[in-house]
Prior knowledge:
Blueprint: E1 2-6, H1 11-21, E2 28-31, E3 41-49, E4 52-61, E5 64-73, H2 78-97, H3 111-120, H4 125-136, H5 140-158, E6 164-171, E7 173-174, E8 186-187, H6 191-217, E9 221-229, H7 237-250, E10 258-264, H8 271-279, E11 284-287, H9 294-299, H10 306-318, E12 324-330, H11 337-350, E13 354-359, H12 371-374, H13 380-394, E14 397-403, E15 412-417, H14 424-430, E16 435-439, E17 444-448, E18 455-459, H15 464-469, H16 471-476, H17 479-486
Parallel strand pairs: 1-2, 1-3, 6-9, 6-16, 7-8, 9-10, 10-11, 11-12, 12-13
Antiparallel strand pairs: 3-4, 4-5, 13-15, 14-15, 17-18
Bound molecules: iron/sulfur cluster (SF4).
Amino acid sequence: MTICFIGNSFKYETEAVMKLFLPLVTFDFLFEEYPDKEGDICKVERIPHEGGYTLSVTIALGGMTESETMPRSGDFCDKTDEAELCRMLYRIMQRLTGITPAWGCLTGIRPVKKVNRLIDEGHDKADIFNILKKEYYVSDEKLELAYQTALAQSEPLKALDKRSYSLYVSVPFCPSRCSYCSFVSHSIESSGAKKLLPQYVEKLCEEIAETAAIARELDLRLDTIYIGGGTPTALSAEQLEAVMGAVKKNFDISKIREYTVEAGRSDTITEKKLEVIRNFGATRISVNPQTMNDSVLKAIGRRHTAEDVVNAFKTARRLGFDNINMDTIAGLPTDTPEGFKHTIETLCGLDPESITIHTLTVKRSSDLFSKEERNVDSRIGEMVSFGQKKLLETGYLPYYLYRQKNTVENLENVGFAKAGYECLYNIYIMEEAQTILAVGAAGSTKLVNTETGKIERLFNYKFPYEYISRYGKMMEKKDGITEFFNNI
Ligand code: SF4
């Protein structure tokens, strides 16, 4: 489809709204000219005239054409014009396709941030619902979800001081690659990765020490730690001990409020590794089945069974872990609403402290983007609704929520937890409320000025080989942390 812009260049938001309806379509863009051919065309126009201007959207799609116009007085106002044009475009696409996205035309990845801002401005629940319905056509169901999430976040967000930070340790290795994975994770079974691992662990420990020195120098206060991946337990028990030992040696972990290790896939979890995790101070782990159906586990390329997940969970409980999260994904290849129901019910039976429901994300560029080839059931909305409802009934509450680009049906990922077991790190990263110092390949440091809301990011090299070979160069960027905090 061609989208042409006359008198404006609101490409980013316009494309995002179009993708809500046409996720598989690629768009061409024209500025200040009309296409010279017929076909699927969207015209987004802002045409000046005496005393004002006219906003206009016309969409030709599959042989049907719809349009809306709106007169405006005075001068152009980019912010309100862009929002108005997006609403016009949304309404037209709704009529042309018969689709009503549950999040309306709210396209950002952090809808709860908007709710939190409105709460801070003094709006009550009814006001917030009215505003978000009027501006974005968000459904009642999603508004309720976002509002409940905002309520669960209010205490953790209040409890932040401006020099507190979280530490993220990245271990971008996995035992094998899952078919849906879009993350830069490396299978430890490849000979390249196997060779790199010892060097990676060595450099990671170095970076942990150097980052701790920077934080000490700046008098920053460590609040939470998250060791994630990949699959951190893809490391051997000895390697895990080296990494967690470096954290313990270099940071004061006696006053932190939370320490998570993503144990992840149960084919990597052993009693010995769990003991290391416990003995080095972690207070929370994730055991992530994604599904409790063996056939689906096989279809996504995992080599463990649902029974292995149960065994890993029970071993963790026996070793004293009393804060366990379990991740699921709705819409995995070959899964069905019945299969997903089984997953959620089985996990509720295990009674972990938190359960996260993700929606499958797919890469647009991939061949797997076609639903048929991916063998993905189209009833993903049904799976998500069932899962969320069941968790609410079982006593879990939503506490963080985010959306990703290319999420099937534009649905959301939601973390549910029993009261008091909300993962602080997840809240802070999603709401961009606290500085995160990241170490390891693909780690991204996020520097947050809690007073102004200003955010700066520093990126580590993505791939382990680059991370190792260009370590010195990468560390030069860390001066940015000092500069940032010296200016607060
Ligand atoms: S465990 Fe996660 S990071 Fe690793 S390959 Fe599977 S989806 Fe990717």
